[in-house]
Amino acid sequence: MILIADSGSTKTQWALVDEKGKVEIFHTSGINPFFQTSEDIEKMYKKERLNADILKVKSLYFYGAGCASEEKNNTVKEGLANVIHAENYIIGSDLLAAAHSLCGNKPGVACILGTGSNSCNYNGSEIVQNVSPLGYILGDEGSGAVLGRMLISDILKNQLSKEVTDLFYEKYKTSRLEVQDRVYKQPFPNRYLAQYTKFLSENISIPEIENIVLQGFDSFVKRNLMQYDNITKNPVHFTGSVAFYFKNQLEKVMQNNRLTLGKVVQAPMEDLINYHLTNK
């Protein structure tokens, strides 16, 4: 029996796969070792009833946001070890999960557009190029956190029409002081900012709203994808809720930059399960 986890900063999707290939899917909160200690991770998953008494597996494949170094991977492993009993713990980045899921054993470019963003050039077995995403303050172009940040900034700086501004405050009943407190003083500001992609999606027919999304995606392409070798020769695949729900805008930006759009899926788990069943 194996357990596969695909964890973003907001949520984690788990797949428990038995010897016959039967799959049980469940969800918990997401984790990010840049913001959480091993103790935080253990405490959170125990609270969410992810219990070692019921989870005893041969191998745990945990792919997560922030799992890109040995130090952070050890933080995750230590946090999970007292919650899940496994013979083997394999910790990898959410980007590697995206590459395995989207590309399988074929070369291509794999991208994540969710709460955060990331991308890589994948040769069919491993990541060979990666432009560091740098997080939602310095990078993460096109992500939910950055699109939300762009929207909020435009609202608070009076850059959008009265129509859009009124729609926003009617929906959220917030204030500049509350926004600043949530962004600068409260935990997980990236999750807070990403929630505003719902407003973008609901009002995407308004040109100035769509333009925020187009600008965010164009910045993702120019500052990340254009640095990869042979970018115009390989398909570019995407996973993540932002890519999925704003696929029309993503297609426009890809066409404008003369890139080939490949798969666009909301979550990588289905293909990730197939990958691990095929590559035992």
How would you explain this protein's 3D organization?
The protein has 280 residues and is an alpha/beta fold. The protein contains 13 helices and ten strands. The chain has helices spanning 38-47, 70-81, 94-103, 135-138, 144-156, 162-172, 176-184, 189-194, 197-202, 207-223, 241-245, 247-256, 269-278, and strands at residues 2-7, 11-17, 23-29, 56-64, 85-93, 108-113, 117-122, 127-129, 236-239, 261-265. The strands form two sheets. A five-stranded mixed beta sheet has the order 3-2-1-4-5, sandwiched between helices. Strands 8-7-6-9-10 form a five-stranded mixed beta sheet, with helices on both faces. Helix 3 (94-103) packs across helix 13 (269-278) and helix 5 crosses helix 10. The longest helix has 17 residues, at 207-223. The protein is globular and about 60 Å long. The model has no long low-confidence stretch (mean pLDDT 89).
SSE layout and pairing:
Layout: E1 2-7, E2 11-17, E3 23-29, H1 38-47, E4 56-64, H2 70-81, E5 85-93, H3 94-103, E6 108-113, E7 117-122, E8 127-129, H4 135-138, H5 144-156, H6 162-172, H7 176-184, H8 189-194, H9 197-202, H10 207-223, E9 236-239, H11 241-245, H12 247-256, E10 261-265, H13 269-278
Parallel strand pairs: 1-4, 4-5, 6-9, 9-10
Antiparallel strand pairs: 1-2, 2-3, 6-7, 7-8
Which stretches of 5+ consecutive residues score pLDDT under 50? none
Q: Give the strand order, joined by hyphens, for the main sheet.
A: 3-2-1-4-5
Please give the radius of gyration in angstroms: 19 Å
Give the rounded overall mean pLDDT.
89
Work out the helix count.
13
The secondary-structure class comes to alpha/beta
**Fraction of residues in β-strands:** 15-25%
Main beta-sheet annotation: 5 strands, mixed
The proportion of residues forming helix, as a percent range, comes to 40-55%
Order of helices and strands: EEEHEHEHEEEHHHHHHHEHHEH
So what's the overall shape?
globular
Rounded to the nearest angstrom, the distance between the terminal CA atoms is 12 Å
